[in-house]
Structures are given as C-alpha cells and as structure tokens.
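Below is how a single chain appears once it has passed through the pipeline. First comes the sequence as given, then the structure the pipeline wrote out for it. We keep one example in the README because the format questions we get most often are answered faster by looking than by reading.
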Amino acid sequence: MTFVPLDHRRVQTAVIGDKHSGDPVILPMDHHELDHWRKLHPDHTYWCGLQLGGCGGELSDRRYTDKVCHFAHHPNAVCHRTANGESSADHLFIKRGMERFLARQGLRGKVSTRDLGTGPGDAVDVFVPSARRRVRFQLGALDHLAWRRTAEEFAQDADGADWVFAQDGPLTHELQYRQGYALRVRLHTHGGERRVDIGVAAQGHPLHWTPLEECTLTPTGLLTPPLKTIRPPYDCHRAASFPVQGGLVFAPLQGSGVSEEAPFDVGKRHLIAAYVKPVDSPVVRALVSLPTDADAPSAGHVYHVPDGARVLVADGGTGWVVTAERYIRLNANEAQRTGLWSPSPAPTGDYGRTSVRARGHIDATTGASAANSVRPTADTEPAADAQVPTGGAEQQPVPGDHRGRARDLISQLRPLEGALGEAVRKQVTRAINGAELWLAAVTNTQSGVSNEGGRHVRQLDLALRTARRDLKLDEYST
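Resulting structure:
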C-alpha cells in the first residue's frame, strides 16, 4: 500500500460551490473575522477550483487562534496547485468585479480569464461589442513581442484597447512614453473579498489609485477621475524617436508646406519638406517638424540644427519625420560647404541676354531666372562667383560659354551624390570633378571654352539623367 502524505500547505483562496466554479473567496485570516464569515455563509462549500489551477478537491476552513486561518485539503488529497496565497485568485476577483462594473453601467460585454502559459491567472480580457472596446488586465509577465501580437489581434474587432498591468516594468514605461500614461491594477483584501483598484501612472504625476466602482468605460477607453484630466480627448500616441548625433543641416524645398503627407500627428508645429543631411550621412528628402514660435525657414537657404534633432518613426514603420527645436541660417560660404547650395550662376547665351552689373548683382533680362531652379539657392550675394566682375561696366557673355550651365548641373548633382549606388556615384563624381577642373582652368582666360565646355556639359547632362534613373526621380525632383 502506497503512503500518501497529507497536504499541510496554507491555502488562502478557494471557489464556492463546486470545482468548476468561478466564484472566488479568500478566507479571513483572523479567527474573529472567520467566525463572523461562518455565520453569514453557513451553507458555503469550498473547493480547490480548476480555474485556480487546483486539483478540484473539496477544502475545509481551518480556524486558528495562534496562527493564520486557512483552507486545507481533506486527508490523503494530492494537489499540484502552485499558487495558494492571498493573490492566487485575483484573476477571478477581477473577472467578477468587471462583470458587476459592466452591469452597473448598462453595458453588455464578455469577461474571460486567459491562460498564457503559466496558469489560468495570467490575464483577464474584457470585450464590449457595442463600444468596440477591449480591456486587458495583464497579471502575468509579458514581453514586447507578445504584447504587439496581442494588440494586433485586438485591432481586428475593436477600435481601441486599454492595457492594465499588475506589475511595473518595460511595457508600462513604453506606454507612458507612447500615450503619456499607463494603467495599473491592484487588489486589497476586505473580509472574504478582494477589491479592485485602478491606478494611473503618468509622467509628471504621482501614481493615483481609484476604486473600480468609481471608474467609467467609454468608447475612448477606461477612465478614472484623475485620468480625465491627463488623457487627451482623442487618441494621440507619441511616435518612437531617436536622437541625431552631431546635428544636421537642411534646405527647405520651394512650396514646402505639408498638409496631408505627415505619417502621424506632430502637434501644432511647422511641417515642411526639405533636403536633410545629418553629419557624416548622405542627403535625403524628408519632412521636418519645427516649432511654431520660431521664424519659418524659407526656400533658398540652408539651416543648421546644432543639437536636439530627433527622428520620429511612425508605428508600423509607415514613415518618419525629423524634429528640431532650434535652427540657424548659414551664410553663403557655410551653406556651400554643406553641398545643399551653391552660388547662382550667371545665365549664359543658352538662357538669353543677361547683364552683369557692379557689386555682383545679376539682372536677367530674358530667359529663365536661376531663382526658379528646383535646387536650393541662397538669397545672398555670390561672393565666390569668379564670373562676376568688380568693375562697373556691363559685359556680355561670350558666345558658346557653357560655364553657367555646367555650374547649374553640378549644383543639381551634388545633393544626389551621396544617395547613389556605387557605379552611378563614380560616374557622377568623375563628371563633376572634370567639369570643376575645366571651370578652374578657364576662370582667367576664354581659350578653350567653346571647345571643352560642350563636352563637359554633355557629360554632366548624362550623369544627371543616370542619377535620376538610379534614384527613380522625375525631372522636377532634383
């Protein structure tokens, strides 16, 4: 005959009625409170319920005056239940509390417990079809990947979900960053009952607890009195952000205002399209979010963001935005060194008659103006332009002079150079370097201009077309 040891563990929680019951009870620990409990409920039977992870056997309440009162299995019972303490039935108390909560608010919904791998008390799910709203009480441990998978499942039949955590950890900190607050849950014992409190953890606010009975469930979510003042009236989730090390420069595009292109809400800020170049990185076209209390940057200039720049990434990887809190306009020399701007070249015979006057002012009498170019240009005097004379007499451009066209093509190719594939980048770099050497050679002489200039312009034209194909850009994108 096999000897079976008696179960001497102190079981604090049980269910009432039978082993399948979901009606929890916690035995009063004080013998005076237990006497009162017995008088109120003389017909109760207690069970090591299956929804507690128990064996299903009947339990008896044990009264002690020198130690804590507790439940005990009958003799020779074998039970492998792992959670026996005061909080071991919290999932059932939350389930019962939410069922009563929905009934008081006149809402029809489903409340169920979930076993996520460690026991039936891992989570409690609440679904209200009429409001298309879910609430998840997360009692067990959960990692980020499992949280994202569950959130995607909830999105299939609900317009929103509230997560209420029993433990503080990385996920509560993540939610505080994303939405400005995180919900917590705790239970405290009162007689044979565990009562539910909902807490709000928000940045800049102390953790505040509210009894579940004083909360409300609306189409926008589970609300506590403190949360009504913290939570915005609409869902507004902050995107993840990453700092840009070393600062960046940007050049706004002509007509750069953006109304509907933003991948997410950036608040009441300037949102512009620009060419952006972080330190030691290639130039990219991006949206830039700037403070409304600062002067709006204008196209034709290059701006430096010395610090504080961040990249916001929309949830799901659907887009990103660069944010900057302060920026400084660069002068002509500084802007030219960034590669986002070069001095506007004097138009040549290819563009019509142009007169060049004293102090470097260019007067375009016919043809297209350089200000209409799609590339960024600076609204400053072209101090570094070798073609502008210092005298007061007007000069006519030399027929066949391709220098202006070459400079214009170089200014369009420079911002694209860093983003090209290796083979195309080499072709573009060779064309730019050759043209720049030719421009330097003809600065003080007109010899060879008509002979060599056409060849370099053709090479630059070919390089620009190749670069556009490589980056899948149309004619106006550069």
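The first strand starts at residue 13 and ends at 16.

See the next section for the split statistics.
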